[in-house]
Amino acid sequence: MAVLITGIGELTTNDPELGRLTEAALVLDGSRVAWAGPAASAPDADERVDVEGRAVLPGWVDSHTHLVFAGDRTAEFEARMAGKPYTAGGIATTVGATREASDEQLAANLRRHVGEAARQGTTCLETKTGYGLTVADEARSARIAGEVADEVTFLGAHLVPPGADAESYVDLVCGEMLDAVAGSVRWADVFCETGAFDEAQSARVLKAAAGRGLGLRVHGNQLGEGPGVRLAVELGAASVDHCTYLSDADVEALAAAETVATLLPACDLSTRQPLAPARRLLDAGATVALASNANPGSSYTTSMAFCVATAVLQMRMTIEEAVWAATAGGAKALRRTDVGVLRPGARADVHVLDAPSVTHLAYRPGVPLTRAVWRAGVRVAG
Ligand code: NIG
């Protein structure tokens, strides 16, 4: 069945030819966009929805979350707000709770958060393993994630489990663990940071994953400068995520590479780190994505609108750059061409704002502006 969405006051397509249109319309046919253009020349459809002058944009593409988890870290958050620094060690708390949880509890928690994200306009979401850290627990996390999320990443190399020897654990990740998850994930990631995995260990994990045909992503430069960005670029990773502390050489490397710099402003705020240097990256010519990093420790939010508002208000991104980074940028970080864009043939992932323009996302920060959402042509909100 074809649906004509008309009365669009401002249509952000992210398509270089279509650009941003006023007085526009869209036709969705099944799970795909069939037509986009001026309302005056829109074709007929079976159903008509008039959005009465509101802004329409592609659904958010949240390319970085950690939502296969159980438990709660409110106490750690409170301690941080009282002045304790964020360290990777808190991950172990969630690992304990996740191992204790049943499959049903993990799946229900994941669905609850993905639903929460969808009601705020997120229509394509990546999530990771990484709170299991045994072969069996990582394999079940990958399986559960695959039942719910659009994209699944193996993050067995999130933390060396307490009590384990780092080199032996990396052997396990590169061997038995990778074998157990390879069939259910598209991506592999490593937390390349002091307190997690060093450069040599990270390179071992990434090369083993690439050898099994997985695409690469890296958590890098979150808590200080380090080798994460360089390694990601050298190994052709699709994305290096966090990028909070960057040397000039890191910025230059990203500007010259296909690797997307995925910035996670909600995490920087929640861990009281400086905000990632978006302007330096953009001015140098790097490709920037914005993602929520939704997880129970360092960034417990699914709000991409919050990330966009922060990027504009505090990181000096323009509204156009921030909206692009949270839609097309996320798609690029996931190497997808069917999402983050509204053009004929794209997935019908449509976000209607209760506002006349995307500028209101930063102009009215914190206000729930999502009016309606279609995901793959199915109305999931509004
Ligand atoms: O992206 N950096 C490592 N992993 C997560 C944190 C997860 C946690 O604290 O539970 C992150 O911030």
Automatic annotation (TrEMBL):
<feature type="binding site">
    <location>
        <position position="293"/>
    </location>
    <ligand>
        <name>Fe(3+)</name>
    </ligand>
</feature>
<feature type="binding site">
    <location>
        <position position="64"/>
    </location>
    <ligand>
        <name>Fe(3+)</name>
    </ligand>
</feature>
<comment type="pathway">
    <text>Amino-acid degradation; L-histidine degradation into L-glutamate; N-formimidoyl-L-glutamate from L-histidine: step 3/3.</text>
</comment>
<feature type="binding site">
    <location>
        <position position="73"/>
    </location>
    <ligand>
        <name>4-imidazolone-5-propanoate</name>
    </ligand>
</feature>
<comment type="function">
    <text>Catalyzes the hydrolytic cleavage of the carbon-nitrogen bond in imidazolone-5-propanoate to yield N-formimidoyl-L-glutamate. It is the third step in the universal histidine degradation pathway.</text>
</comment>
<feature type="binding site">
    <location>
        <position position="131"/>
    </location>
    <ligand>
        <name>N-formimidoyl-L-glutamate</name>
    </ligand>
</feature>
<protein>
    <recommendedName>
        <fullName>Imidazolonepropionase</fullName>
        <ecNumber>3.5.2.7</ecNumber>
    </recommendedName>
</protein>
<dbReference type="InterPro" id="IPR006680">
    <property type="entry name" value="Amidohydro-rel"/>
</dbReference>
<keyword id="KW-0963">Cytoplasm</keyword>
<keyword id="KW-0378">Hydrolase</keyword>
<dbReference type="Pfam" id="PF01979">
    <property type="entry name" value="Amidohydro_1"/>
</dbReference>
<feature type="binding site">
    <location>
        <position position="295"/>
    </location>
    <ligand>
        <name>N-formimidoyl-L-glutamate</name>
    </ligand>
</feature>
<comment type="similarity">
    <text>Belongs to the metallo-dependent hydrolases superfamily. HutI family.</text>
</comment>
<dbReference type="GO" id="GO:0005737">
    <property type="term" value="C:cytoplasm"/>
</dbReference>
<dbReference type="GO" id="GO:0008270">
    <property type="term" value="F:zinc ion binding"/>
</dbReference>
<feature type="binding site">
    <location>
        <position position="131"/>
    </location>
    <ligand>
        <name>4-imidazolone-5-propanoate</name>
    </ligand>
</feature>
<dbReference type="InterPro" id="IPR032466">
    <property type="entry name" value="Metal_Hydrolase"/>
</dbReference>
<dbReference type="GO" id="GO:0019556">
    <property type="term" value="P:L-histidine catabolic process to glutamate and formamide"/>
</dbReference>
<keyword id="KW-0862">Zinc</keyword>
<feature type="binding site">
    <location>
        <position position="222"/>
    </location>
    <ligand>
        <name>4-imidazolone-5-propanoate</name>
    </ligand>
</feature>
<feature type="binding site">
    <location>
        <position position="64"/>
    </location>
    <ligand>
        <name>Zn(2+)</name>
    </ligand>
</feature>
<keyword id="KW-0369">Histidine metabolism</keyword>
<dbReference type="GO" id="GO:0050480">
    <property type="term" value="F:imidazolonepropionase activity"/>
</dbReference>
<feature type="binding site">
    <location>
        <position position="219"/>
    </location>
    <ligand>
        <name>Zn(2+)</name>
    </ligand>
</feature>
<feature type="binding site">
    <location>
        <position position="298"/>
    </location>
    <ligand>
        <name>4-imidazolone-5-propanoate</name>
    </ligand>
</feature>
<dbReference type="InterPro" id="IPR005920">
    <property type="entry name" value="HutI"/>
</dbReference>
<feature type="binding site">
    <location>
        <position position="66"/>
    </location>
    <ligand>
        <name>Zn(2+)</name>
    </ligand>
</feature>
<feature type="domain" description="Amidohydrolase-related">
    <location>
        <begin position="56"/>
        <end position="359"/>
    </location>
</feature>
<keyword id="KW-0408">Iron</keyword>
<feature type="binding site">
    <location>
        <position position="158"/>
    </location>
    <ligand>
        <name>4-imidazolone-5-propanoate</name>
    </ligand>
</feature>
<dbReference type="InterPro" id="IPR011059">
    <property type="entry name" value="Metal-dep_hydrolase_composite"/>
</dbReference>
<dbReference type="GO" id="GO:0005506">
    <property type="term" value="F:iron ion binding"/>
</dbReference>
<feature type="binding site">
    <location>
        <position position="297"/>
    </location>
    <ligand>
        <name>N-formimidoyl-L-glutamate</name>
    </ligand>
</feature>
<keyword id="KW-0479">Metal-binding</keyword>
<feature type="binding site">
    <location>
        <position position="66"/>
    </location>
    <ligand>
        <name>Fe(3+)</name>
    </ligand>
</feature>
<feature type="binding site">
    <location>
        <position position="293"/>
    </location>
    <ligand>
        <name>Zn(2+)</name>
    </ligand>
</feature>
<dbReference type="GO" id="GO:0019557">
    <property type="term" value="P:L-histidine catabolic process to glutamate and formate"/>
</dbReference>
<feature type="binding site">
    <location>
        <position position="219"/>
    </location>
    <ligand>
        <name>Fe(3+)</name>
    </ligand>
</feature>
